[in-house]
Amino acid sequence: MWFPPFGAGLRDSALIVSEYKSLYAKDHSSVDSLEDLVHEIKPSVLIGCSNVGGAFTPSILRAMASFHQRPLVFALSTPSECAECDADKALRHTNGCCLFGSGAPDVTKNLDEGDAQRSTGFTLMSHAYVSPGVTLGVLCTRMHHVADDIFIIAAQTIADMVTEEDLKQGRIYPPLENSRQVSLAIATAISQYAYDKGRANTYPEPEDKMAYILDKQYDYNYHNALPAIYSWPSHATKALNTSGLQASHLFDKTFKGKSSYYS
């Protein structure tokens, strides 16, 4: 695992100022650009979170395609103008072989219709997959501290929910329309982990954690709170022909001669 900007992933770099960064440092001579580094180490995965728009140049993308049959290119910076590349460039410069992930929702905005149909390897890598499930799991267990291991559980759960059919279509995440099920699975896994590690503060411990969390999960398909509406009998809604009637006659006809009740 390498961490540009250029030199930041090298052991002799002055940019390494924290001990945790040194764990990932490499013994390697300094390089001048990301493109030089890509050509030297031939990575199979390229992850962009630099907010440097266009950092994944056509030359870099072509190189990734030459190194690997299905390279992974993740342009995670948002908004879209800050993305390292877009879906159109990723598809065009890798000849459609890359698995592309974007942090911006409009991953295929520049694709023509033919390319969009071929772009099955594109995935929206949104926090919408992670945040709802983590929040739900933490609230239901009342954990006091949310450490990194909770997010690792979320990542593992998402990976486990990718089906064979998803993989065949080039997806690396489940479909976004399944996000509700993904959130439930993440919250359940976090709940089990929290109780196993003694970090949960909701007692008694639910026997069926998924059922417990499902009961707490917001459901927008609630019952109608308005009063029931009944249909009127057809004879009661039949229009009355009032042509040629005087007001007094109309009153008598309407109330069938019982005008004395209203005198």
UniProtKB/TrEMBL annotation:
Domain (Malic enzyme NAD-binding): residue spans on this chain: 7-195
GO cellular component, one term: mitochondrion
SMART domains reported in the protein's UniProt record: Malic_M
SUPFAM superfamilies xrefs: NAD(P)-binding Rossmann-fold domains
GO BP field: malate metabolic process
GO molecular function, one term: NAD binding
Protein name: Malic enzyme NAD-binding domain-containing protein
Organism: Timema bartmani
